[in-house]
Amino acid sequence: KEEAKEEAKAEEKAAPEKEEGEEKPRTRIGQGRCVGLVVEWKGYMGWIEPLAKISHEQAKRHGGRVYLNQSDVVSGTDADSPAPRIKEGKIVDFFVYSDADGLGAEECRVRSVLRLTLPHGLTSQKLKDSPRWSEHLSDSEYYPAYEREHSVLLRKYSWPLPFVVLELWGSPDALVEAAIALSTPEDSKNC
User: In CA terms, which of 82, 92, 151, 164 is 20 to 30 Å from 43?
Assistant: First the structure.
């Protein structure tokens, strides 16, 4: 019983420290949003693996991962709608901040996903930029230039199939525009 009481007292002492930790002063890094993959989630907090390198002196802390708290997740569409729940494997975009503990994500938005298949020829015609590989996006490559141009993460699977499987991650409006741009052959744009 004494051990249980001591543990309870220790937890009570630790709880205020945790709240104080959430109030550490933040400094936003950069102007734009970053894109990353949620690689670990513990119900209320977790870690994002950014898909592009973050240039900051604290970027190597925590193995290059960016901290995320559920309270920093926002709805991507309507300000009145509740923030979606996070889980491992989700693609998100966010602003990066720095505090005494390292880098964190704020105003984090969960991206929607759209999967489509295209013929190999059309895919080769559309995806001329250099792809990148991430250890966290297995069996696939992604296209950073497509993200910059369309605000959509484009992931191309490397499965040996008679067609190409693509995954698009973005806001609903951006997904529609990107899917139309990808699936429309170059010679039919003037019709």
Answer: 151
Q: Which residue reads 């744009």 in tokens?
A: 189
Output the tens digit of pLDDT for each of the chain's 191 residues: 455 445 444 444 443 443 444 567 999 998 899 999 999 999 999 999 999 889 899 888 999 999 999 999 998 666 677 888 899 999 999 999 999 999 999 999 999 999 999 999 999 999 988 899 888 888 999 999 999 999 999 999 999 999 999 999 999 999 999 999 999 887 665 55
Q: With respect to residue 17, please indicate whether it lies within any of the assigned structural domains.
A: no
Amino acid symbol at 169 = W
Residue 146 and residue 164 in one domain: yes
CATH code, domain with 172: 3.30.1370
Q: Are residues 90 and 50 in the same domain?
A: yes
Q: How far apart are CA 34 and CA 151, in angstroms?
A: 11
Q: What backbone torsions phi and psi does residue 161 show, to the nearest 5 degrees?
A: -130, 165
Domain of 168, in residue numbers:
112-188
Spatial distance between the Cα atoms of 29 and 54, rounded to a whole number of angstroms:
9
